[in-house]
Amino acid sequence: MRKPILTTATMLATVILVSSMSPAAEPSTQAAKQKKLNVLFIGNSFTACHNLAQVVKEMAEAGDPDLSFDVTTVIYGGRRLVDHWRLGTQNFVRLWALTTEEEQATVRSLEEMVAKDPNDRYAPSALARHRQLSKSLDVQRKKWDLVVLQSYRDDLEGEKSLYVQYAPKFAELIKAQGGRVVLYETTPTTQNSKPLTVPPDPAPVTEKAKAIAALARQIDAVVVPMSVVALRCQTVRPDLTLRYVKDGHLNQTMGYLTACTFYAALFNRSPEGLPIDTVNENARSKGGKPAQDPDGEPLKRTFSAQDRADLQRIAWEGLKQFQQIAATIGHR
User: Fold this and answer.
1) Which of 107, 142, 221, 314 to pair with 269, CA 20 to 30 A apart?
2) Which residues pair with 279 in a beta bridge?
3) What are phi and psi of 168, to 5 degrees?
4) Could you give the count of Cα atoms lying within 13 Å of 213 in the half-sphere of its Cβ?
5) What kind and span of H or E run contains 176?
6) Residue 28 pLDDT
């Protein structure tokens, strides 16, 4: 029988998270308590915003003080999985087996891209990243327990979506080292910049969720289903906004909600009660003035006890709604 689409990280080959799932489970020795997850986040600004990987790390380690949740990111602004593949991000996925010759070949390929198209905005930064990797490959070599594949407007066309085409390519490399795929589904087209008076139409969200669920079933992935979770938030807390007014990115509320959903999806437990209550937009000061978020507000947002509790609960409820949607799709 096929395993459920959404499962806990407890069965990873290199780490057992039993004590994080059950307070009654007491390891017999201190050595048995030590747990570590190597986690790679691949994405764009929807991963970079609010230092999402770090907030997820804080929540994971708050949920289990014996867990070391080590995060690494490969981020290119505005890029999708197809672009990451072009820029050689698959090399970072397979660090455990990557050879010096293979990495040098990637460097040469990127050098050719830069020479051929001086207007390529991303090849130069990828080239610098890979040159650095080629110098320190043996130091950076590791296996990933979890690899997060972020979507971005490349998941809107069902089975024809580029996300559906490229996630399996990355998944093959992830699973070859015993790692687990995590599909981080972003929802830039449904985030609201103003409070809502009526809930959005759930039909498009449900259809998109079904496509993501089918992909997850195909490659045995965990899903962070932000379209369904956002819809849940818009339904029960329509007063909350999920994106900036002057910028299309997720605001602090959506950033926090996303981190809560990561926690819920990765550990299959509710984030309710976690003490983490703050997120920061990552922006630099300009002209000597304090840095502000895109709407001119402070970068740091500390949520009230009520909002924190609501967002934690909504993340769990939204995840459960996605699981119900996923259960309705047929097996491939």
Assistant:
1) 142
2) 301
3) -65, -30
4) 23
5) helix 162-176
6) 33
